[in-house]
Amino acid sequence: MPEIAPGLSFSLLHAPGNLFSSYWLSCTLLMIAAFCLIRTFYKRLDKNFKSSSQTSNIQVGSLLLNQIQPTVERPAPSSSPAKKNMRYTKNGRRVKAKKIKAPSTTTLVAPPCIEKTLQPYEFFLVLDLEGTCKLGTDFNYPNEIIEFPVSILHWTDRQEDGRAETLEVLNEFRSFVKPTWRPTLSDFCTELTGITQEQVDSAPHFLEVLNKLEAFLVKNGLIEEGTKKRLRRFCWCSDGPWDIRDFFVKQCFISQVEMPSWIQGDVLDVRFAVQHWVNSETGPHTKPGLSKISNGVRRPSLNISAQLKILGLPAFEGRQHSGIDDTRNIAKIVTELARRGVRLVPNTTIYPGRRWRWMGKHGQILEDCIP
Ligand SMILES: *[C@@H]1O[C@H](CO)[C@@H](O)[C@H](O)[C@H]1NC(C)=O
Ligand SMILES: CC(=O)N[C@H]1CO[C@H](CO)[C@@H](O)[C@@H]1O
To answer: Which residues cross the membrane (predicted)?
Structure first.
């Protein structure tokens, strides 16, 4: 039969009533119906597959995010508390930071930040000076430096583009210093700092300590021998602004020496940086440490112990107000800030020419003007 080949329209038009044609018509109709059914079925299947593959993509994405995060060892700046807890436990740290509440507006869809922070400085010189003091005196007193510790921190993973996150102690310097104006320590001072009269009596004077420190910086490749110019980009760090801004500037006046160029410049007040980090994590309305007004600037009052605690680090190691122990604990705080992706740059201006009322001529201390 030649009618077979032309198909449906031919048989409908030309073969009504014909038994054979009606057989083919039913067959064709059945086939069309079957085709339509199969097509609809596959369309549904395809739709389901597409939508399910989309959700599985999301799951894979978040799984990947969770898997990447701990191995990268650095939280996204606005990461969720869940991610943070995971990191702390992985690093075996106490999960103290639970106290820092993430703002309620934090969304879970924060993009993963796996890039290390750009760190413009190569080295960090942490120092925590101890000075003579009397009960009831403040930072306006002519304090003389009695302990001078410095801890050098350097990056172990700084890339060529300046990105880094891991700091390590490179070297330490420590010397006691013999005071000249008031060579006898008060009981209060010894109790506070743990520094004994014998320790300062047998210590070199400030100028000699400066020379030793200079030699130490030369040995570590930070300054040039002779010219004393900076060879590397380093930043001085201290807990609060007092060490260099007050103690060091006063001591230079008393010892009648110019402030060395290698210690001039802005410094990183670690306490201020920690407070800044806390505010950025919790929002500006929750301040764990009350701010104090100092020199017209709002300064946080978080002591070293409180900073360690808020960063989820182990408790203070050593003796509080011992210069070297304070320095080592501050170094840990700086290291932790770096690990958390804080850009470590100076945040405090130092004026080498700062003067106090008791400063007379040629390093003379005017006793009548001491507060
Ligand atoms: C540090 O601050 C905390 C809380 O503000 C306080 O309890 C503690 O006594 C302080 N420690 C020192 C050594 O001043
Ligand atoms: C002098 C200086 O560098 N100050 C900076 C201290 O840190 C705050 C907060 O990061 C900056 O805004 C200041 O410019």
So the answer is: 20-42
